[in-house]
Design a protein that fits this description.
Oligomer: single chain
Order of helices and strands: HHHHHHHHEEHH
Largest sheet: 2 strands, antiparallel
Number of domains: 1
Length: 269
Amino acid sequence: MELIIYLLIGAIAGFAAGLFGVGGGLIIVPILFIVFTQLNYDPSVIMHMAVGTSLATIIVTSISSVMAHHLKGAVLWSVVRNLAPGLVLGSFLGAGIADLLPGQGLQLLIGFFAVWVAARMFSRANVKLDPVSTLPSTPVQMAAGAGIGVASAIFGIGGGSLTVPFLNRCGVVMQKAVATSSACGLPIAIAGALGFIWFGEKSDVPVANTIGYIHIYAFIGISVMSFFTAKLGAKVAHKLSPVMLKKCFAALLLTVGTYFIYRGVSAFF
């Protein structure tokens, strides 16, 4: 039954990864949090395991999603190359920061972050941007990558929640921003997952079937299904209007953010 749950999570997360370029983490983290809680795992590591396992699965969903977007010619590889160094360094650093935070703190951070991004995305849904002509210099892109990497590792996401708005604000049309974000999710996921393995091993996680903060069975189940459904999500993304894609993306973020704020605040009472 547990494996079936992980397969279902993978199917939903994979579709979201291809559709929104978010790596699926915004769905994987809250669902894994619920599942791990129901399995009575140690509360002190549940949130860290949800985030770490999410990053590991994003390695697979990113590969699948970016393959589909690349076939559409939508990935801006020059931008990916500029962002990648910062993404890698920032993600590993972010894993270390997350390791120092208590579970409740992680919940609130993820919640407020998601709501903030949702509000900005929704408010700019109807704003028409110019083609790719306003991208910042390479050093600025690298610095942006570092910031995105740190936040992504802390929140257990593929970086789409920051990369998509960043590129969109720079004048990249939504479909290309989503596609490029999918490619950026790979270095984030690899570096972040390695970080959660490294710091998790040092923390001696009291849960079976784990490597550091990564739950092996959850990783396998989610990865298998998400690899296939990410391609479907990518196809749908290219059929929707940019405005509709932005609004759907914002609605997803708002839902997840509200949930984690509720959980985080409730823990104090």
